[in-house]
Write a structure and sequence with these properties.
With 82 residues, this protein is an all-alpha fold. It has four helices and no strands.
Length: 82
Amino acid sequence: MSENNQKLVALLSRVLDIDQALISDSTSPENTDSWDSYNGLLLVSELESEFDIHFTMEEVYAVKCVKDIKEALIRHNVFSFD
């Protein structure tokens, strides 16, 4: 697992208060009770801080699952798939 992927999984685990082993590309608000609107905003803030980037509102609204987060991070040149 790449360093940035490890950072992402750790961040998701911390913000959503779920075990890292439960996080996959398909993890989403639809299947994760703790991924509510508040934690969604917190997640955006933490991702921007951790990776020193700024998401557009379009990017924020486009995120439906962890895979979408990874794709946004790729567009910001701070992430690559393993």
